[in-house]
Design brief:
The protein contains five helices and no strands. It is mostly helical.
Length: 132
Amino acid sequence: MSHLTKKDRLAIRAALEEQRANLLHGLKAALEESGQTQYAAVLGKSSGDSADEALAVTLGNLSAARMDHEVRSLQAMEDAAGRLDSPDFGICEDCGAHIPAARLIANPTATRCVACQERHEHTYTGQTHGSL
């Protein structure tokens, strides 16, 4: 039997839906920005300055990285929504301990308890996950 009550699951679902809506709003704004020439001012100087071109490329890469992060976050939220009614939702994938409801409300996509998440981050810090 799950350690999460019906009230806990409702609160987690509400938090998940709110975070998802905020993320979708941000992603939509980023997509709208990317469809425009937001870096045209930098590129359009026609000064032939390679530093300006490098800055424009860097800004474009940052925008792509932000969108990549937001897409990954959205996928994690979709995964969490799919698991929410499962009896094993809220169980740490590493050690099997119960993840507290407060942690799941704050971060509905959490799949590890705090101790295992800290260990995971310490172990995998600096490793990349690819990009678009």
